[in-house]
User: Fold these one by one.
Assistant:
Number 1:
Amino acid sequence: MHARANGYKEIGVEIDGSKLDAVGLLVESRTMVPMRAIFEKLQSEVIWNQEKQSVTATKGTTTVNLAIGDVSARVNNRTLALDVPPMLIEGTTYVPLRFVSESLGAEVDFDAARSIASVHTTGNGPTSPGPATPPKELSAEPFVVKGRVTDRQGMPLEGVEIIADNQLARDSYQEAITDEEGYYQIDLPPINTTWNMISYYEHKFEGTVQKFKLTSVTDRPFGGNKGAVRDFVWDDINGMVIIQYNYPDEEKWPGFSLDEVELTLIPVSRLIDGSEGKLIRETTTFSPDGPGLQSVPIAKYEISARWVPDGMNPVPMLVSKFDTNQYGASIVTSDFSAVVGTTKRVAIKLVFP
């Protein structure tokens, strides 16, 4: 499978062994499929509401209702949360494959080797989705490393790159990609060596693909002859807000220091992992990367600033993005750019009014 022009990885979809005419797309670790293609294959009646940008699908006694951009869905009289809402991509409405299929009584498997999602209709009629399947019990076996990758809420992450790095020979490693339930397995060559585990995860947010390096829950080498279970958690979702500033020459601002600047960040979106953001109001500090805030959960923020020196009333400052000179009382930005490796930051500029 290849990446489309819009940046999403394509996922093949099969319904009871027959290939779906349309392809799915991997969006934020969830397989999304064209609305009408999947609903009609699952033999459900579809009604599209143009005004509300919503779809209602009915099969038997089950009714599923979803709307573009809405993370809440209804199955009969139940309201359920979606990890990724329905969305419009290149003029086509895409809906989450697993949620839709299981809501209408089908089962979904994912073949990571072929990048194929397989839907199996059970013939027993649709049922409301039940609780998530409990994690598998994994145990170590010789010359095999396996595990699962989840986010901070324990939800599985699909499409995460897992690398087993051979410590004996340079640039000798084995790779795998997690399936839809977050599981991976790497069969190691039968050689007497130790291995380190590395993981990289790419996540699209506000039009930009962000790359994260994940750390294994059990972060230590293992012998290939014993094998290992190594799980990963995507728990570091932070970047930096760095201030680029030329000190003022005006005598009316004596003693100005960038570690006396207070930044206020108001989230205007959810955090990059989908969780709820909180207002941040902190005084900046110095670091090797520059003055600013060093550990900020990645989100879209409205940012404002003021100088708060001891013994004086706070003085509001004007804010601009680093690459413009359009200053205002605040700016809205989500431009967390990678600067070194997977380190990400937003650069802003400040001046006095």
Number 2:
Amino acid sequence: MKRIRALSRWLRLRALAIAVLAAALASVIGCASPSGSEQAQQGMPTAPLSSAQPTDALAEETPPAKGAKAPAFPPVQYESAWPEQTVISDQGYPVNSCVPEELRTHASTLKTSDGKYLTALVLGSGSDGVLLAHEQGYSICSFLDIGQELAEQGYLVVLPEYRAHGASQQSEDTESIELDAEAALKELERQGAERVFLAGASCGGTTAIISGVGQPLPIQGLLILSSPAQCGPRLDAIPSVKEIKAPSLFVVSPGDMLGAVEKQVRQLYEASGADRKELIIDESGFHGTDMYKRGENGDKLRTRIIDFIIAAFH
């Protein structure tokens, strides 16, 4: 009888273990659903996500000392959007190959509120934080030069690479990008930022506005490069830009998309709630960060942008 009871108990434990394992596998498989048409365009196999996922518990367990960086979240394996441009840093983080090797040690992985994984660079340190959000169709390197210069001058900078771009996770949902800006802003706060400057190009600027007003840090300033008032069918930055009272700089080229982008940027400028705001009309004809990288007067515009960001903190 004792042997029968023991055998029965062993069978129940074995069944429980199998059930737990099955649930864990289902969770991992559920997080790693293939990204359909975008994956087919890349022609690359699907790489499943690892079960090791970054969590907010890490930040809570190990709060950073004042002025020190918080520990990075653990590396996560996932299918990157542009596999041919994705490399793995020495610390195990996916990062766009456009990032110079000496900066790849600053790569990290962020997780959005809807469960997407983003690669990001965390440069510099301190209580003055800067978000640099790239254009749709561009990469984490769009603002990299400005990010490096600001970090060298004592600012904490986070450059996220948005979903379905570069070394960030492949995704069929390319519309919820305000959640990507939100994740980057949360990382700035986690790393010790006490106030923040919002900067973005094209739809990156639209999301910086929308997510910026929804986070708790005081907004010191806003930079917009060729950003539409409405990005896609669901993102409208007009109500949010009315709430930003900090100094704001709007830059656009009249030749961008035959004037369509200028019209959108002017809508943001006119709706802006900033007490001090400026609209720069750049004659280069380029879009977003290309205005200062490729335009005839690009060096002057780049200097103007950096000076504006620094002045916003003083």
Number 3:
Amino acid sequence: MTEVRVGLIEFGKALNDSVALPGLGELPGGQVSLGRAVRGARARLKRADRILADNLRLGIMVRKKFFSSDVEPVTDAGFLKDVFVAVGRRDLGNGDALELYTDDTVGPDMSRQDGVAQVVAPAYDELTGFRVQVLVRDGVLRFGALTAFSRGGQPMRVLGLFGPGPVDELPAGRPGTVLLGFQCDVPPLAGDTLTAFDEPSHDHFERREGVAVVHGLNDLGNGSVVAAVEVPEGRGSVFTVGTRARVLRPAGTTFNERSTVVASDLRILSLARGGVAVRTNGGVRTFTVGLAFRDLRQNDVIEAYVPADAVPLAPPPVVAVSVPLVDVNAASGPELAQLLSPEQVAKALELRQRQGGFPDVEAFGVAIGLQPHEIVRLRKRATAGRVALRETGVRQLDI
């Protein structure tokens, strides 16, 4: 299964910043600003333009009851709903966001064992899910650690650690209680082994540089596609030649929108503004992007990113992408729209139908009212194929 983005929870937008759960403490509150929040989904912690943590789990999710200070557990929450969650992090604050996703093929790194605990007695609560009394046999068990049962099931996060009060870790030989919430695909049993895994330390996993929505496409026929894109209002827009990109394909409506990652680890081959090649889009909202991905479609989203371990880019050479010239005597309206305004396209089509075509690009530019500097720029992007002019009936000659 390919990664599917199922929702986004933004903190600082809910009516209440947090809510207190008995025996657990404060849960941070956020608002579902895209798609749906589904209990048990994997999550990434996004702060500004950085992904600080990955493979979190939406282990507990509650909502406040109407006209009451009490809370109730929920399995999913829709667009613009306020929720209070536990994911194994204590530092969620205003401005943070949880990017929720599903991906059954790419899992977390579980190659380094950090601690082993024996389950002594499991328990279940309708509000906070499963908790297990454990005895740590080896290593250490930490709050927020990535764990798994020996009998299988999805990896889980330690959502709370008590011994008897809240603690940050349990060393070998010490008993305690582990809160797992609603992450357990396999209900815990006495005698189970709970293994904790060590994760490499990262300041951040990747930096998100910008997103842009595809509005027009030009397949170059050599495995590359040039896309006309626009940056959504309020979103980042830094694109640079040579950086990585992924392509997301949205499906559904704003109330239940999902986006499937259809390509990743692509490279931005070229950028252009107004027909002129550039190294960076310079923060402008409309430009063109060249990618080696022929399945790109209208309304796809291009997400530019830089992994934390990426080698800093030396000033990369601009990859020359050969863009076919537009034949003003044969091009369709949408093809002419790559060069001209809607009014100029309408005038060009009308003149072409009336007189049969244009002898050259200069004559075409003069006929539709372009300024001299605009005609000079048009020469680099257009050509005039041979036609039989109606006035004389004589075909053009290539000189």
Number 4:
Amino acid sequence: MTSDLPRGPAALAALDPRLPSPLEELRDERFARRGLRLLLKRDDLIHPELPGNKWRKLEPNLGAASSGRLTLFTFGGAYSNHLRATAAAGRLLGLATVGVVRGDELAGRPLNPSLARCAADGMRLLFVDRATYRRKAEPEVLARVTARAGLTADDCLVVPEGGSNAAAARGCAGLGEELRGVADVVGVACGTGGTLAGLAAGLAEGQRAIGFPVLKGGFLEAEVERLQTEAFGARRGDWRLDDRFHGGGYAKVTPALTAFAEDFTTRHGLPLERLYVAKALHGLTTLAEEGAFARGMTVVAVVTGAPAPVGPSDTKSSPSATSNPSATSSPSGTSSPSGA
């Protein structure tokens, strides 16, 4: 990596993120007939090479790594948007990146399009068995894995799966701050909880956030509280979770969700990413139809990512194109949340 590239804040400013992200109003009769406004917060448009809302979560970590010229060392599944974003950021900032991929059986196979993009962006991929991956947060296991990459704790900045740590939650507080005075209710899909933790903390008094978990298991409330405590010292903001819209777990897309997403695209001309965005919008629309929001309220849906391009040969392998029956509900299981 070149040593004369700008570091820290100067390096991040050079990437020219589009902030605040755009707000778009949609005329949707399911909201309008109940006296509600629907706005989309287009975090998917912040940066063309960091998919989804990854900029907000990665920015504080990227600044620290760039200042010290540290290797970005992180984790994800075979289709992790977080790995793709980290690899792209490393290339743009001149930083080395290592991605620890769950599943050592993948090491001898051709790379799927997501991992191939990571490798093309310069990320070193390290495949580990699933038992090791589940224990990746344990200090002794983490030390062994980093040593396999020829690194020590002083050489790298470890970013957790999905990018959700205290720094990421503080970065996502900017999302809430951008919506002050705009929204009454903000809905966002949740994988690892970092976006919701920051969003809720950034909102003003009287505003509330609803998180729609894309995994089942009921673990996320404790995780969001942990992230907020680490980032802000205590639980912050008015937020809750609605666990009805995960569709059976991560990477699972039900016929009902597919029908909703296709109808939404027909109505508004906007293709929906199915694993996160469609689930959040399905949740908000259902709540509106159930009368959960008072007339006159403004409802904002955070668009955290766009559908991944899928070619004819990829439609049976990419979870963006189809459901994945083998996916588990746990973030340490067979299928990885991309980390909203």
